[in-house]
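Continuing the batch. This is chain 6 of the set; chains 1 through 5 are on the previous pages. Same settings as before, nothing changed between runs. Recording input and output for traceability.
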Amino acid sequence: GGRGGNGFSAGGNGGSVIAAVFGGSLTSNQGSFLSAELIGGDGGLAVSGPGGAGGNLIGNSVFGGFNFTAGQGGRGSVGGNGGSIIGNGIVGLYETQTLGQSVTAGDGGDGIKRGGTGGSIRNFHGSFDLGSTQETGFLRYQGGSGGLAVSGRGGDGGSVINSSPINQDRNQLAGDIFIAGGRGGDGRSGGNGGAVDTFVNRTDQFQVPAVLSFLGGDGGNSTKGAAGSGGSVKNITTASTGQPNPFAGSISAFTFSRVIAGRGGDSSGNNGGTGGGVAAINVSAQENPLAVVAGSGGDGLFRGGNGGSVSTAILQIGNSSFAKAVVIAGEGGDANAYIANALDPASLQTAIKAFGGKVGRGGDGGGITNILQLGGILTRMDLIAGNGGDTVNYGTVADLASFIGRGGSISKVRVDGSIGNLDPQVPIKSYNDIRTGQTMDDFVRLKLRDESAPGSVSDTDGNVGLVAGAAGRVKSVFNGYSVSNQPIFPTSPAVGGVNGSVFSVTARNIMSAVAGNVERIAAIQSVKDIKLTGGGIVGADKDRFNDPSNVRRFLDASLNPSPTPVLDGILIDGAIVSRSRPTDLIGRPINLGGDVYVLA
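Output for chain 6:
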């Protein structure tokens, strides 16, 4: 499609490609393929009016179409919308038939008053069955990013919706699957991130897909209004090895499969965006790890966004030494607004000026619920609910009223293997380096989403067992001085905070179960209906070769050894740490036969 022209009052729209049909075939000797590209035109620039819309690709069916690219929206006072890619809507008729498919919607144009909406991909059904003797197909679908806005709302990111292979029960798709919603644009208020919704690939082929990447778009940041929400990921069904297949098309830098919703955007003048959720997925990783992550809530002035939850997931994990699952719910965003603290001395009451005119409130952490992990009994799984957001500029440990977010809970989980790695030689370790101030949201952004610096989730990167969300924290000062017993952490726990609970969890073994972080212990609010299968254990004893006296089982916040867990301390051996004794669902005490500690 042709490019739209630039203009003063409006930019021209880019040309679209509509109802292009070509039904090619292989040559008689199977020696070559026909190939095609469909490209929409970019929208034109406008000096004082709206930019032109990017051209769409609509209703096409092209044999060998390896590249579908919609047009970019043009810049203007209002950014032009990015072009979308829409299927032909005819049952049984593919949009393209080829082994490698790259489908990219157009980005929204940047604007003054509003950013353009990113283009979406809807009802696009490619065929991966060419009668090839090798299973070599790969797939990359990318929604368009929303445009930026100087004084208005950023554009929403484009979504990828209902775009499964047309021959989902038998095909040649053995390479990577990469599907991502577009990022919301930044602006006076932020645009929402694009979603990934409905992808089904129940192939029975010998080689299943390699590395999965299903990524919701991040919400846009804002300067005055509310930030954008993160895009969700839901209704996903497909198998994978989690191992790159260089013969079938490696298009991701990661060496394990990922399902990650978008984080909420940050707002310097209003509320942070809500983190995207992960729901209704059935995915497998036969050889390497699988990470399932909901988006964190964005930071805000008045209110941190709530973290996204992970719900209704079937995770099928292999029984190899490299296979494991990590499920992470989103953290609540922090709040930055504050007033003078009523418990501070009178001299500080006059010296401390309010910021935002009221106390901000931290967002609630996301939860984990209805999770089923299938696989061999040697598999392991880490479950991490979201911590509540902090009031980073307000509060003391003595405040009776708190404005912090609640911690997320973990419920209705059944694991065929173990929660955490019980091997005495594998230490308990947090994924995020909490002692340097790295949050779980930081870890996800830096190590699990960034294609330029791919991380990993092996047991050397993290081994935490079950971690419910802790309530948010308050600024670590009292009467103007740093809290003396907090040498590592910049915040302090608050009186009356509500941590996440744990109930209806069944596993072969549970290495440990705490709230907050294994390197900053908080107590789970309540523990109910915990069941162990196969004569399992609770609380793994780790290697005590350097501590034959069995004193260094835990550390306090100052890294001193302790025979029992200490709030804000560190786990060395596994344990369950709760605010009350574990019970069944109706409140009767149960004996888990392991290391269980009650800390108020």
